[in-house]
């Protein structure tokens, strides 16, 4: 049993239409699934990824229409990294963000890589990271119909940063339960705070990395639009996930047990600093119920919700996601 890397990150948006426009038209990702939150079918659940929604490329959003402002702080998933192929692609993105009037922090070096931090229209904390020197988990294949040239496109999820009040509690879970290894540190930009700890799992590299930032000067985050709900990690299949269920229960973490999400199977648990972690299987994938050429164009519902389609769609604001 080995965690393979980052599977997906799920965040919150207040407006599905603006979210769709930003992530497909500005960032050039493909909407690979337009579905609903299976625990609250009144809200959209939008999945953006590479060409076919490969595991490790997927950034998802729950639409909570009344979501308020995020008050950033501790006990949070505080940054989501998006991979690009090389430093040349990162320079392209700096110019693109400026042309689109999207604020960014400029290109800088972090842990031996070039990065470009920026925010979306709702304050989502994002960082483009160059894979120029990266070795490890392979990236995905950028969408060929993207407004971004394919060789400059986003290839998947990179590191995920966790901000917590007591780093050792989270690091213990990552290392002793999930099999991550500490591979180094880099300095915090906040005076008086300890270095940020970098951990990787499986084949390693940007697609299999979690960074743990300890902050003793912050209150807990109050999430809203632009905040991250949970991070999911890759496991091979359902049989392996069932073994992870046993391991998590042995550690007595609050957990969901095995949950069938149809496109993958999942296990959710909270580690001691309150971060919600999901373990998700690599398959069966997003092409299970849609033609790969037309992913994300219609509202997709798993079989256990299909009988309620009329009622579910009546509560959703129509969202045209047809690729022209």
From TrEMBL:
Regions annotated as coiled coil: none
PROSITE patterns hit by this protein: VOC
Organism: Radiobacillus deserti
UniProt key word Oxidoreductase: yes
InterPro entries: Extradiol_RC_dioxygenase, Glyas_Bleomycin-R_OHBP_Dase, Glyas_Fos-R_dOase_dom, VOC_core
UniProt keyword annotation of GTP-binding present: no
Protein name: Ring-cleaving dioxygenase
PANTHER family in alphabetical order: RING-CLEAVING DIOXYGENASE MHQA-RELATED, RING-CLEAVING DIOXYGENASE MHQE-RELATED
Annotated keywords: Dioxygenase, Oxidoreductase
Domain (VOC): residue spans on this chain: 5-131, 156-282
Gene Ontology MF annotations: dioxygenase activity
SUPFAM superfamilies attached to this UniProt entry: Glyoxalase/Bleomycin resistance protein/Dihydroxybiphenyl dioxygenase
């Amino acid at each position: 049993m080995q965690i393979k890397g980052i599977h997906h990150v799920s965040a919150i948006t207040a407006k599905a239409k603006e979210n769709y426009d930003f992530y497909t038209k500005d960032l050039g990702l493909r909407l690979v699934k337009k579905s609903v939150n299976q625990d609250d079918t009144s809200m959209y659940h939008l999945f953006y990824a590479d060409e076919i929604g490969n595991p490790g490329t997927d950034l998802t959003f729950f639409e909570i229409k009344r979501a308020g402002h995020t008050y950033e702080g501790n006990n949070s998933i505080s940054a989501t990294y998006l991979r690009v192929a090389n430093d040349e692609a990162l320079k392209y993105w700096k110019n693109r963000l400026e042309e689109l009037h999207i604020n960014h922090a400029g290109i800088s070096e972090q842990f031996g890589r070039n990065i470009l931090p920026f925010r979306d229209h709702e304050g989502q904390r994002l960082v483009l990271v160059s894979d120029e020197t990266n070795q490890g988990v392979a990236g995905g294949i950028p969408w060929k119909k993207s407004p971004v040239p394919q060789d400059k496109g986003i290839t998947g999820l990179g590191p995920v940063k966790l901000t917590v009040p007591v780093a050792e509690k989270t690091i213990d879970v990552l290392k002793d339960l999930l099999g991550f290894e500490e591979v180094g540190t880099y300095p915090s930009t906040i005076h008086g705070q300890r270095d940020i700890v970098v951990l990787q799992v499986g084949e390693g590299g940007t697609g299999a990395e979690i960074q743990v930032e300890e902050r003793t000067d912050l209150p807990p985050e109050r999430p809203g639009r632009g905040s991250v709900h949970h991070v999911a990690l890759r496991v091979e299949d359902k049989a392996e996930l069932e073994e992870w269920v046993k391991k998590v229960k042995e550690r007595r973490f609050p957990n969901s047990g095995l949950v069938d999400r149809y496109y993958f199977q999942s296990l959710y648990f909270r580690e001691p600093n309150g971060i919600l972690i999901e373990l998700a299987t690599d398959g069966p994938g997003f092409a299970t119920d849609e033609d790969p050429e037309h992913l994300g164009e219609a509202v997709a519902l798993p079989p256990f919700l299909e009988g309620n389609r009329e009622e579910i769609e009546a509560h959703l604001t129509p969202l045209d996601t047809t690729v022209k």
